[in-house]
From TrEMBL:
The keyword Lyase applies. Keywords: Lyase. InterPro entries: PCD_sf, Pterin_deHydtase. This is 4a-hydroxytetrahydrobiopterin dehydratase. The gene is LOC113708902. CDD domains: PCD_DCoH_subfamily_a. Its EC number is 4.2.1.96. GO terms for biological process: tetrahydrobiopterin biosynthetic process.
Amino acid sequence: MRPMTVEAAHSLIPQVQGWNLVTEDGMMKLQRTWKVKTFMKGMEFFKLVADVAEAEGHHPDLHLVAWNNVKIEIWTHAVGGLTENDFILAAKINRLDLHQLLSRKVGE
């Protein structure tokens, strides 16, 4: 299996709202950030994501920075880039009910 092309990734990114395409060390990844209410809400967030990832057999990189900033990076390590499975996992994460864990945005 080979990583998808930039063109293919750009055609799929509109299907995973909130996610961004990033390139690090020549490798494309999906990345998204959230702000959680508390450190412990961040841990709950990771548990929900971990349950989906484990069921899919596809494990993203999870980062909790400065106690309330959650970042997830998804790519297929075995191919050194993105595959369709990465977009499927991102879509499944988007369907999680995370509202109770997230900080409210200004104006909400």
